[in-house]
Amino acid sequence: MTAIDQPVARTAYQRSVADYWNAEKDPVNLRLGDVDGLYHHHYGLGDYDPAVLETPEATRDETIIAEMHRLETAQAEVLLDHLGPISPSDRLLDAGCGRGGTSVMAHLRFGCQVEGISISEQQIEFANGHARQRGIDGSVRYHLRNMLDTGFETGAFQGIWNNESTMYVDLHELFAEHARQLVPGGRYVTITGCYNDVTGGRSRAVSQIDQHYICNIHPRGDYFKALSDNGFVPITVVDLTAATIPYWELRAQSSVATGIEDPFLTAYREGSFHYLLIAADRV
Q1: Residue 33 half-sphere exposure, CB side, CA atoms within 13 Å?
Q2: How far apart are CA 35 and CA 78, in angstroms?
Q3: Of 148, 160, 167, 188, the residue nearest 274 (C-alpha)
Q4: Cα–Cα distance measured from residue 170 to residue 106, given in angstroms and rounded to the nearest whole number
Q5: Which of 44, 97, 107, 124 is the S-S candidate for 247 at Cβ 3.0 to 4.6 Å?
Q6: What are the pLDDT digits (tens) for 100-123?
């Protein structure tokens, strides 16, 4: 069987991840996306405007939601900034696309074709529906596929990214597949949370994050080893930890807080967890 003929979720763990995201209707994702129709599944970057906490009670929640969405959209902009020169004739892959917000932003910025993939039927249906509503479904398409074996042709993409989705897969398998799909000299970018190898293992707070999202957060060093083993050379590494803390501080005071805010803030502040951007070229 070819990759696209096989079941998308191929292990019990992958099926549990697909089930989780198929059932997910978390307001922290949906209400923020309702602000402008860009539905993200990642966190935010940058300082928030403290004035949002002083707005009248009748409009405070709506104002906080809009500010959180501004920060998460800013995070996606930072990721796209690191893809390098992209022309309208290029093709990009959003691996672990969620409900598709970053794919839409990439198309609007570069004018190119973008493919998004997820193992969640619910996410793919949602994302394709919004692409049709925007009239960009000829250029931005979402597919129910496994990021470890996508079925796309070799050398199909100029750029590939994972935005907070690498913690669900084996890094060596993932980067081998990305290396196959990228053109020589193509760019890979990820923004991810990773635990600090220096601390000697997962902290209690990091383990709580794993449990909440049924994921498997990798140590920082594993990213660089797996990239190197698969022919990638990092060109930019940015520690975004300090820049993401304000988002979590604001989220903790919002109506869409989920209870995971304290473990994130604890892990970041104690240094057991880092929020990194890694951009690497395929050589």
Answers
A1: 22
A2: 20
A3: 167
A4: 26
A5: 44
A6: 999 999 999 999 999 999 999 999
Asked if residues 119 and 146 have their Cβ atoms less than 8 Å apart, the reply is yes
Angle (CA) 88-278-75 rounded to 5° is: 70
Q: Helix, strand or coil for residue 233? A: strand
User: For 131-185, how does the pLDDT look when each residue is reduced to its tens digit (9 = 90+)?
Assistant: 999 999 999 999 999 999 999 999 999 999 999 999 999 999 999 999 999 999 9
pTM, two decimal places: 0.96
Give DSSP secondary structure letters for 52-121.
Answer: GGGS-HHHHHHHHHHHHHHHHHHHHHHHHHTT----TT-EEEEET-TTSHHHHHHHHHH--EEEEEES-H
Residues 215-265: tens digit of each pLDDT: 999 999 999 999 999 999 999 999 999 999 999 999 999 999 999 999 999
Cβ neighbours, 10 Å, residue 69: 21
Output the CA–CA distances (angstroms, integers) from residue 159 to 4, 42, 44, 66, 105, in the order listed. Answer: 21, 19, 22, 30, 14
The b/e string for 17-35 (b: 16+ C-beta within 10 A; e otherwise) is: bbeebeeeeeebbebbbeb
At which residue do the structure tokens 């949370």 appear? 193
User: Which residues share a beta bridge with 140?
Assistant: 114
- Looking up tokens 């923020």 gives 32
Mean pLDDT, the chain, integer: 96
**Residue 200 has which token pair?**
């000697």
Q: What is the DSSP string of 168-212?
A: GS-HHHHHHHHHHHEEEEEEEEEEEEEE-GGGTS--HHHHHHHHH
Tokens of 165: 């989705």
